[in-house]
Amino acid sequence: MKNNLYKMAQAAKRRMRVSWSATTGIAMLFGLLMAISGVAQAQTGTSISGKISDKQGALPGVSVVEKGTSNGTTTDAEGKFTLQLSTGAKTITVSSVGYVSQDVDIADKSTVEITLEEDQKTLNEVVVIGYGSLNKREVSSAITHLSSKDLLRVGGNNPMMAIQGKVAGLTVTNTSTADPNSSPNIQLRGASSRSAGLGPLFVVNGIPGGNIDNINQNEIESIDVLKGGAASAIYGTRGSNGVIVITTKKGSGQPRLFYDGYTTFDYLANELSVLSKDEFLANKRGFDFGGNTDWLKEVSRQPSFSHKHTLQFSGGTGQTNYFTSVDYRDANGIDLRSGKKEYGGRVNINHTTTNNLLALTFSVAPRYAKISEADYSAFNYALTLNPTIPLRDSTGKYSYINSGFFANNPVEYATNVLQDREQKSLDLNGSVKLNILENLNTTLTFGEVSSSRRIMDFVPSNITPVINGNGRNVGYQALEEKDQKSLEWLGNYFLDRDKHSVKLLAGYSFQYFTASGFNARNEKFPSNVLTYNALGTGLWNVEKGINNVNSYKNSSKLIAFFGRVNYDFDQKYYLSASLRREGSSKFGYDNKWGYFPAASFAWRLTQENFMKSLPWLNELKLRADYGETGNQDFDSYRSLDTYGGYGYYPYNGNSYQVWGPNQNTNYNLRWEKAANFNVGLDFEVLSSKITGSVNYYVRTNKDLLGNYNVANPPNIQGQTFANVGTMRNTGVELQLSAAVINKGAFSYNLSVTGAFNDNKFVSFSNNLFKGQKYIDVVGMPAPGSPGTLQRLQEDKRIGSFYALKSAGVNDDGALLVYNKDGEIVPANEANNDDKQFIGNGLPKFTTGITNNFTYKNWDLSVFLRGAFGYKLFNTYAFYLGTPAAQQNANLLTSAFDGGKYSKLTSTSTYSSLSDYFLEPGGFLKVDNITLSYTQPIKSKFMQSARIYATTRNLATFTKFKGGDPDLIQINGLYPGVNTNGDNNGTLNYYPSTTQLLLGLQLTF
User: Fold this and answer.
1) Would strands 201-204 and 705-709 be described as parallel, antiparallel, or unpaired?
2) Where are the beta strands (DSSP E) in 353-395?
3) What is the largest CA-CA distance in the chain?
4) Residues 782-835 pLDDT 10s
5) Is 836 helix (H, G, I), strand (E, B) or coil?
6) Rounded CA gap, 205 and 211, in Å?
7) Which helix H or strand E contains 858, and what residues bound it?
8) What is the dihedral of CA 94, 100, 106, 110, to 10 degrees?
9) Who has the most CB within 10 Å: 50, 52, 352, 622?
10) What are the Cα distances from residue 479, in Å, to 181, 423, 522?
11) 971, 759 in Cβ contact below 8 A?
């Protein structure tokens, strides 16, 4: 198998070199499919044909398999099938999701007609909740369930990109999707913290804190998003940002082999337009160096090419089943340097003893990745570099650039500087379940999630920036290791008496976290040959009397006791209540432990006699829930007295490391607390052709963790990490699905999600820390001294832009603004006191719309995604879009196109931040289109073949002029402006792309 995967990878590379077109790829896939189909049709033998229906009519897509073999087929759009049988075949098995499987006697028969019965147990969809599962009709909190068929087909780096726009209130953003090493930012029901983490807790196969990066999308069986406080409160100090439960696939009684492989091609999209050489010279922007360089083209490779292959085996018996998955991915970014090669696998084994006394599970998932990091500044250079500078000089060397914004040659830098990474991860978990009685069981679960990341950087001495700079090459290595060990015990008791049903849960959880690492850096190596692999040969540390070696290790513990009761009366009234008592070693001495209660109630109105007279109403359930959750997602030891280094101090020719207290002690440090209230309505109408839910929520986060300004002295530092502030999010969510058309061979299904969110930073003070009402954030970089762009302030939404309010442009090309007295003045005569709130970067409404069309063996999915009601700051127009921008730098064409930005010709107001550069950020994307064709194969070796083609980011409809609005983050505390890792403004970015994905799936 490894050899086959290797051959596939090599073949894909050869295809890349000859620049496949999309048409060629599709043609070859269709050719392969037709060849497979032709082989299948060439078989002969005894056959059975027939029609399969339910009470409503013909059933397409029903599996028909010769019992005891893998020989099978599926019904067509009219419910008909024909199956070539082996000699002596007597029974076929007929099965379909939502129906009871049947074994049909076919001895001495050539045709059959079969009617399938609905499987009520299957139709009552199972939803995974914290430490258990419920029938969908029993759920009394806000939970969204997604099966594997609901996931988008994406060629991304993280399975969470497959649910983008699929869950109302869950925003999944990635401002650099074409970077193979990027990860999405995930936020549920708005921002909820200042410094303690904004992302949800991931629970993978029952293990809290599972590694989402170690999951192949093809391995996922279901995803359940616990949005309501009552659902997530069972996870205590980590439930404030919601919980996402991921369940991977398990084996079945029938042996199965599945292959999925795809290739992707990425092309630049929504590019920013800059001046050509002739335009640059005509507008006298700088010196003519005689070249004519398209820098965006030079720093890009398009199409960038990637491919991924997944092979899965599953099978077993009634007592034991297994699922095995292996995958390989080779991905390249749209930039010149980035790449990722990864190998992963997963094995899930389940065993139940014959007497059903014990049930054992075991899962292991290793993954290895070799990475080359992208250089995001390269695309910044592509915008600003003088287009008359040639890529190479007359001697063939890279041109050295020392004018304009930057001094660098981005092509030389990307192709010679190393930023390599190696990542290893291993997930282990298992459980032992003892079924003491039919209604009493206990389970012991263990798990370990470990990862290591090696960072390796090298800047050689023979590149022009170093030659013309300090002349020293630089090497760096670091190792970061994380480990999480879990041990949990659960006890479950079930009791049904007449109309009463009770489910009791009790549990204990212990988790131990460790993180350790080291790093070393040196300069002035005698050779570039060994790169970062011989740090000890560098002379710089010895000459300066420093070691440049650091290491660290920290740990933390979580211990919890919890319980829950679920009560059901007559399948009409549902009540759930839970309590978790949890302790964390991260908190102060007097705040180690906390309580997290929750309760929820549901009323199925359609079970009432007065509602049963409405035949069009199939299900109507009213829900309400309340839960308290916490957040302890911050570094260890923040409450304690700790010491750290303050650099080196020279004395008598030697350098000495300076040490001292590096933080203020806070023994009162505790978890953030969130009070969550949710009321919702679930409904099914018109024979369940239309289903959906509506939720209204209020989440108030108190005791927000973050740095708070304090007096210095008496404090050692000017800031203390403390519980200060309150934030509130309110919103309405809609989840709707409709079977719009279902006639003959054609069907059309529609799914819509929509979410309104309102946010307010309620308070910045508490009884201990008083006086501070706001902080100014998002400092914008030079040239000039623009200052900060946003303000976090009491009674305001996060993402509030705080700058000057523009009043047009005067005859001299200077920006005019309003001062604090309402007078119009040139922007350079205004000061910070004249700033005001001018807009907000947090969307008020987000939506996702899925359209699924099916015709015979063809499937078409069209997914639209949008965000509305917010502003974006056009950073590129501010720095590069006006004639007043710095000389010797290239500009956007907007500087001379006669538009609003071309009017700003005066350099006196060049660095004045104002709403002149705020633009509507709302957009609607044709985000994902997938077309597929599935061919049942009448062969004992193969069941079906499917080919599919997907386009991502096909079109964007927006008024924003700064490129793709999706490149600017709308999650977190600073939405609406392009920021770096320090949450300050930046021009660095990774461009948007349109992706073409071509794939093949084979089922054996």
Assistant:
1) unpaired
2) 358-372
3) 103
4) 888 899 999 999 999 999 999 999 999 999 999 999 999 999 999 999 999 999
5) strand
6) 11
7) strand 858-868
8) -60
9) 52
10) 18, 10, 16
11) no
